[in-house]
Amino acid sequence: MLNTSPHQKIVEQQFDSFCKKVLRNQARNIYDENKRWKEKFISLEALTSSELSQLSIQDTYGAECIYFSIDDYEIPIEDFLIAQAIESLSKRQQDIILLSFFLDMKDVDIAKLMSLAKSTVHYHKENALNELRKFMEEHVDEK
What we know:
Blueprint: H1 6-40, H2 49-55, E1 66-70, E2 73-77, H3 80-87, H4 91-102, H5 107-114, H6 118-138
Helix pairs in contact: 3-6, 4-6, 5-6
């Protein structure tokens, strides 16, 4: 800037001012973006244990389940005590309980599948539930 004309000084000052504006605007954009990130995202350390457990999953393996087969259905049961209780039932009661509670089938659908009357399905389901209740009460300490 030693031997510069007045016009060249004005151009240099304008360029200097332009560069400062660009840097200020870019800094403002970065601060705004960081603010948006802080509003949307939360640190894992800030989560409570119950919130953190909702984000986690646990692997289950086939060896940890007991499988029951009904026609073309394979029904895995992870809880060993429940599986034992179901095994204590007759085959017909097992099938009705598994179809009803694990495959969410209605009594009418179970009756059609097993070629039974709806009232028979209902009767066997009620008896099976009573037997399951007794089994679970007797073995509640084993868990």
